[in-house]
Amino acid sequence: MKASSLHLIRMVPTILPDLTFEEALETTKIYSVMGLLKNGTPLISSRPFRAPHHTISDAGLIGGGQIPKPGEVSLAHNGVLFLDESPEFKKNVLEVLRQPVEDGTVTISRAASSLNFPARFILVIAFNPCPCGYLGDLKHNCKCTPTQVQRYESRLSGPLLDRIDMHLEVPSVPYKDMSSADSGESSALIKERVQQARSIQKKRFEQRKNYYSNGQMTPKDIKKFCILDTPSEKLLEKAVDRLGLSARSYHRILKISRTIADLDQSENLQTKHIAEAVQYRRLDCCK
Ligand SMILES: [Zn+2]
Predict the structure, then answer these.
(1) What is the CATH number of domain 3-179?
(2) Band of pLDDT at residue 184, cut at 50, 70 and 90
(3) What is the pLDDT of residues 111-128, one digit of tens each?
């Protein structure tokens, strides 16, 4: 991935809400088990950002070993796990991500027993449009054959993409444009909006234990908290038909719409919120 986009992804933790005390304790515990706590840092107070290399093994990613140890998914607990050049990861390595992405926890089974480690993180995966990276680029020519492009795309499995909330195409931006002073909202401002949206969600789920964000909503919650007016319902119906969306994608769109509406401080879901969320499912149609 190009340096400018990598810079953008490294910024993700800077717009996330501050760690709560409980979250800080959970994350610290994992680093302590691994002997990774730095001298003079008894408590980890910022969200972790982990970016393992594509040569990592499945045990390195989800944990394992004779005496089971947590892997990268647990070191990313309450933070961000970033997989750059994701089609380069071994297929079995990507497949083992499905459990933690779905459950926020990972189970390491051994003959005698099995161990659970926490693994709730934001998964960010990046990949190029083709092996050389220039497909669709206006300034460079792509030299890949259609077969090479197809083989490259097929390395990311549908079930994994299906579990990813938002798909975005990031055009290459020269680094000087990104780092210039007038390049938009600052991280601090965005973080403020994120914190506000998070407190709306905290209030929404105050009766539930360990429930703090829209991402955790069950289909029953979605019915209760994502009520659609007729135009929004029609728009979503059309999107489902056109893109051939799965039930899982349908529910994800509603959850993301709820979050977009929270960021907008809007109690009701509006057509514009649904329309924005549908845009983030762009890879659903080409799986
Ligand atoms: Zn190419």
Answers:
(1) 3.40.50
(2) confident
(3) 777 889 999 999 999 988
